[in-house]
Amino acid sequence: MSSNPDDAPAPPPATAGEGAVSRQEFDALFSAVRTWGRWADADRGAWNRVTPEQVRRAAALVRSGTLVPMARPWDTAPGPDNNKPALHYMSDLGDVEPPEPATHKDFIAVDYHGKAVSHLDALSHIAYRGQLYEGRAAQECIDAGGARFGAVSALGPLVTRGVLLDLPTVFGVPWLEPGRAVHAADLVAAEQALGVTIGEGDAVLLRSGSLRRRQERGAWNTGAASAGLHVDAMPLLAERGIALLGGDGDSDVRPSPVDGLHSPVHALAVAAMGVPLLDNLDLEALSAASASTGRYEFLLLVAPLNIPGATGSPVSPVAVL
Amino acid sequence: MSSNPDDAPAPPPATAGEGAVSRQEFDALFSAVRTWGRWADADRGAWNRVTPEQVRRAAALVRSGTLVPMARPWDTAPGPDNNKPALHYMSDLGDVEPPEPATHKDFIAVDYHGKAVSHLDALSHIAYRGQLYEGRAAQECIDAGGARFGAVSALGPLVTRGVLLDLPTVFGVPWLEPGRAVHAADLVAAEQALGVTIGEGDAVLLRSGSLRRRQERGAWNTGAASAGLHVDAMPLLAERGIALLGGDGDSDVRPSPVDGLHSPVHALAVAAMGVPLLDNLDLEALSAASASTGRYEFLLLVAPLNIPGATGSPVSPVAVL
Amino acid sequence: MSSNPDDAPAPPPATAGEGAVSRQEFDALFSAVRTWGRWADADRGAWNRVTPEQVRRAAALVRSGTLVPMARPWDTAPGPDNNKPALHYMSDLGDVEPPEPATHKDFIAVDYHGKAVSHLDALSHIAYRGQLYEGRAAQECIDAGGARFGAVSALGPLVTRGVLLDLPTVFGVPWLEPGRAVHAADLVAAEQALGVTIGEGDAVLLRSGSLRRRQERGAWNTGAASAGLHVDAMPLLAERGIALLGGDGDSDVRPSPVDGLHSPVHALAVAAMGVPLLDNLDLEALSAASASTGRYEFLLLVAPLNIPGATGSPVSPVAVL
Amino acid sequence: MSSNPDDAPAPPPATAGEGAVSRQEFDALFSAVRTWGRWADADRGAWNRVTPEQVRRAAALVRSGTLVPMARPWDTAPGPDNNKPALHYMSDLGDVEPPEPATHKDFIAVDYHGKAVSHLDALSHIAYRGQLYEGRAAQECIDAGGARFGAVSALGPLVTRGVLLDLPTVFGVPWLEPGRAVHAADLVAAEQALGVTIGEGDAVLLRSGSLRRRQERGAWNTGAASAGLHVDAMPLLAERGIALLGGDGDSDVRPSPVDGLHSPVHALAVAAMGVPLLDNLDLEALSAASASTGRYEFLLLVAPLNIPGATGSPVSPVAVL
């Protein structure tokens, strides 16, 4: 990686129109990356790749001992990219339960899937053609009582090697423009520029710079336009055997390049590959820290709430540098 | 530590009546363990003790790479020890947002302080004589909009050495009976029996076995009777410079031995020492794992949700063995 | 009606065992009382009986102008008869939004069906053998987005004649014991004793005295044992053409006398007859007021919240005497 | 009233700048309309004016028996006039509790004060210069546990004469433009045009036509600009002895004409006069019905939820014509 913008690979042009994928092509992709039937503990999907050996290797990556949190603040205000604001109310200001000591308490609530809260998608979050990961019928596994397959409570915590693909740094731009599709070639370029190679059991975090753009330009409807992965990048990630995919968006480029599918990367990652997703991270501090050390790998911790039957969880992922 | 119950120190008798502490004695204790004015970043209290060096040492503790989660399941059913049940509702069963892919979503809510959900108490949770940690006036720092001092969002994540004081194992009993006070001498006995010494920046986790008792005997009102620390144990923990205190209860023995105070250990730890608390952990798996390896120290990760102004957070702490 | 207990009809014996109804008998009953296909505006079921003429007659019942509310207080504490406590948090204590003036605000939440909150059951609340009222398939009408048939928002408000069947007064007892089944003969006895005849478009409110019992004896699990209607009383109510059925319980006697059905009166009233139910009323004040005037009829108002797709609503019904 | 637009009084010009009121003038107004100390049952404020005699007179107004509901639909989507969207989730789709019968249930939640949900403001909602109605100190009466004075549970239900002041009809316009202040002279003109005179114990409902404007022009930020009462109209309403004030806005014209006060009509009505407010009604159907009969008075029913300590309640007011 170079800090000289002149050395940066040229940012590719926007993909409007170009890169369109038919439903038939998508279905072929889906079959190609599918890992159904591979693990006894199917609920955990690709997290089965994270063996104790992988955890030990991740721990061995710790150098400075600096912690870098990645969770965005709980957002209670609606906006163009937050149509389901989180709730936070004080339930005791020291005046409800008797002192001493005085206790201050609060109530929190959130419909966490969406565009604003940092969260993990468990395997029950997504079904394609009626099937969850492992080919389980969504209708038989999920009802108003929650998910009986692919719940976040089946995942448990994750400690593994995290890899930051800091694309604006790679391309020498402040951010990828909304709608910019990230292709396999971009991932390979990022690996080379940043000096890191994605491997088995890794958590891959894609930085598009959307949060920096939001800070400078204001919020926009990210459901309509956001930078993210094109489906043609998924075979590479499948081949490498990643355990987790995340980013400062929700991984999918929007508008979707696939005919009739609003979130094709979700379908491939979660339903075909068994790879949970980390959405809406704040990767700004990690980008700065990585730039200063020149290292784009680190120990990554993800500890979802233990909610039986939930399709995911708000989380506060942490990088240990 | 010995696996032979005959070698175990005799379990001390119950403390009913015995060990009573006057308010005056408590106030002297409070002054003695107080660390106000010590850190520029006062919101983080004793977490300031966890330096990058401490993080590196914790990472070096990893041996097998086994992860042991400690969060109890999100409990939506009321009971004698759960008077504020958590909420979990499905907000989309693939029939609200249009496919493809189908998306399953859920809404979660909880007033998390209490007896049932595993959670972290931030420094704004407790005030004694009107003062939060650092002597900050509670009324000036906390209102219906949240806490402006001592919020969980100021804490961020924690990675440090965790130490399990597995008292039932030490004493050769299945659990400590509700009401059993844990004194300084018990902590010292545990250190010796388990071969571990509490030090600067450590997270101390106390296992009373209450969860095992709950499984075998059924739930009871833990607010009325629970095993936990007597205030006389706090000077030892203050002297050792701990960063975090937690357990399978809420750290306080109940009934309280201190005249007029319902939660004296909360007051000492949070308001005097700046030590956040971890309440209601499930330490059963960690107990079994530690017994099998004979090691009672490990890398501990705590990653609270990033909720501005919140007095704590539900958490899923993880031990990496 | 007489205030002399000696004149009261003898309270019938408990029905344990006696009165058992087979599933086949129930299905015959269901067919017999069914009113499917009767109204163009099927969502409103038996509320179609409440014509403007019926409203005018109800208004003409007003004598003293006294209002008698019937809603129990919003119950935020769990208990043997409240396993889904309501929530109430202050969201502004004059310290969130800027003054002047200072504004105080609150957040309320409830999963209102259950045993504790006074609420209305709309026609989408109950399906029998997969069918809602009018024979609509539940699976086609209700999903995670709400009910498209039989929602409370389709009902709107109700003003009609209310009739109080004050059974403890009729039988000269402080309350009906939990498990006491109310049969058709009891309804007829009540009409005669109280001097009122149930007619077309009426709202029938059954008082069992359960709230008085709760106040004197403490709360109990009303899901296991409560006084209420035996299914054999429903043909009489069907014949009379009632519009609404309610009470201080949830109308069903428990344990259920019908083999394999937990709430047979719900099935008959809501799914067969299109009669919404009013559950968990406080009828104590209405009982006292009616006793003092000797009149057991009044103008009744029910104004559910206008929640599109909801299966009912918390309500505060009011009698105008 | 005339249906001929040519007969309509000329719509007054907008009030930008004009009509500004100093804080000193406002305080004099506040003192002039104040009714503190008048009623033993101070929590109920001006609802004390609604005697049983007033209820009987209201019942006598019923002519056709037509019910006209006024509650807007529960709005779960954020928007320029809804920054605190209501929540509605299905908690049972017949798949959580066991059949038969199948039960469908839902969870509702809302922070109901604001611009979108039809609701009642109880007397605890507003304090001016630290004082609630009756001069009660807000800080002593309201804490995180709720309001101990002026709670909605102290109000109970209301049945009284309602009077619709349908201003667009009076002025022959489709709606009052946002920012249009309604003055005392406008109220008098409306009385004359509509053939109704506001009297003791009445509920006055002001229609600005904002909902029609919203339907035709789209939503806007009503907190920034809305038609409503100028404070100079309040002495007239005080003199007439009204019990309740409401409308399709929140009664206050915005921007506020009073220096430093965001909601001066709230302060006068609630804190000085003890008059609860009804916000965000849908008066379109009532307008049409009143126009067709030429009668602008009716029986009005308001039945707030019985929530102890709440500062108001979502409601579904109903007119009986």
From TrEMBL, chains A, B, C, D:
Region (Disordered): 1-21
Pfam families xrefs: Cyclase (PF04199)
Biological processes, Gene Ontology terms: L-tryptophan catabolic process to kynurenine
SUPFAM superfamilies: Putative cyclase (SSF102198)
Annotated Gene3D superfamilies: Putative cyclase
InterPro entries xref list: KFase/CYL, KFase_sf
Listed GO MF terms: arylformamidase activity
Coiled coil: none
Name of the protein in its database record: Cyclase
Species of provenance: Streptomyces lydicamycinicus
